[in-house]
């Protein structure tokens, strides 16, 4: 039973399109995150949510809009996709928003913008 | 801005060799974590160190947190092909904002 699941696994799309990535966790955690991993494997935080409320928006363009309908779900919608958006996007969760807490990651969504 | 620099960036060794990966910063962290990531998967937590000078062992892996809480190291004894992966250190000021290191890609050849 997967703890943090995200769909789709792969997403190939044209520039200018709008796409969404879904994430669900069944761990009962309060805090969820979106991370972006670039081609050099650098993992950078994009958003943090605690109990459905946005806590951190790490200077991400407005084209990226996270939505948390409940604390088990954190979806990411991306408008007007650009070539530079190509990356692997990871959803993660933790019990509480403390940085000594274990992060549980999904298996990633590889986004390719053509 | 807190940054975590890892070295080396790439490491390719033979099975049975020992290795050490370093994670350094000019900032003080309340805790540091080490994750391992395999291709096509998300990172998985190996260990969390919270006290300056702390040493933790996980089978053949030894983790150390620097006395000043600005750096950490991961030492692997007698590396095996199953140790192959991307090793990431991570830390934060206390809440929400985990910062990940630049990563070390390890390949252990049989």
Description of the structure:
Chain A starts with a strand and ends with a strand. In chain A, a hairpin with a 2-residue loop joins strand 7 and strand 8 (73-78). Chain A contains no helices and eleven strands. With 114 residues, chain A is mostly beta strands. In chain B, the strands form two sheets. In chain B, strands 2, 4, 5, 9, 10 and 11 form a six-stranded mixed sheet that branches. The model of chain B has no long low-confidence stretch (mean pLDDT 94). Chain B is globular. With 110 residues, chain B is mainly beta.
Short account of what is shown:
The complex is a heterodimer of chains A (114) and B (110). Helices cover 0% and strands 55% of the residues of chain A.
**Number of helical stretches of at least 4 residues of chain B:** 0
Q: Which spans of chain A of ≥5 residues are poorly predicted at pLDDT below 50?
A: none
Q: How much β-strand is present in the residues of chain A?
A: over 45%
Structural category of chain B = mainly beta
Give Rg of chain B in angstroms: 13 Å
Q: Which regions of chain B contain 5 or more consecutive residues with pLDDT less than 50?
A: none
Q: What is the overall silhouette of chain B? A: globular
| Largest interface, chains and sizes | A-B, 27 and 30 residues
Fraction of helical residues of chain A: under 10%
Q: Percent range for helical residues of chain B?
A: under 10%
Offer a few descriptive terms.
heterodimer; A: 114 residues; 7-stranded mixed β-sheet; 4-stranded antiparallel β-sheet; 0% helix; globular; B: 110 residues; mainly beta; 6-stranded mixed β-sheet; 53% strand
What is the topological layout?
The complex is a heterodimer of chains A (114) and B (110).
Chain A: E1 4-7, E2 10-13, E3 19-25, E4 31-37, E5 43-50, E6 53-57, E7 64-70, E8 73-78, E9 87-94, E10 104-105, E11 109-113
Parallel strand pairs in A: 2-11
Antiparallel strand pairs in A: 1-3, 3-8, 4-5, 4-9, 5-6, 7-8, 9-10, 9-11
Chain B: E1 5-7, E2 10-14, E3 19-24, E4 31-37, E5 44-49, E6 55-58, E7 61-65, E8 71-76, E9 85-92, E10 99-100, E11 104-109
Parallel strand pairs in B: 2-11
Antiparallel strand pairs in B: 1-3, 3-8, 4-5, 4-9, 6-7, 7-8, 9-10, 9-11
């Amino acid at each position: 039973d997967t703890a943090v699941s995200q769909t789709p696994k792969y997403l190939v799309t044209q520039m200018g399109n709008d796409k969404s990535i879904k994430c669900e966790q069944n761990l009962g955690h309060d805090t969820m995150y979106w991370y972006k991993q670039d081609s050099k494997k650098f993992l950078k935080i994009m958003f943090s949510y605690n109990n459905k409320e946005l806590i951190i928006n790490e200077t991400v363009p407005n084209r990226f809009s996270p939505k948390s309908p409940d604390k088990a779900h954190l979806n990411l919608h991306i408008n007007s996709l650009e070539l530079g958006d190509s990356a692997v996007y990871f959803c993660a969760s933790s019990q509480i928003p403390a940085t000594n807490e274990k992060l549980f990651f999904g298996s990633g969504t590889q986004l390719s913008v053509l | 801005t807190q940054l975590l620099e890892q070295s080396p960036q790439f490491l390719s060794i033979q099975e049975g060799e020992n290795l050490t990966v370093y994670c350094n910063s000019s900032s003080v962290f309340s805790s540091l974590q080490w994750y391992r990531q395999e291709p096509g998967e998300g990172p998985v937590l190996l260990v969390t160190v919270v006290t300056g000078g702390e040493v933790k062992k996980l089978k053949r892996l030894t983790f150390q947190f620097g006395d000043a809480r600005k750096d950490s190291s991961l030492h692997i004894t007698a590396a095996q092909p199953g140790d192959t992966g991307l090793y990431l250190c991570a830390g934060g000021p206390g809440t929400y904002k985990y910062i990940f290191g630049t990563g070390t890609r390890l390949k252990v050849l049989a």
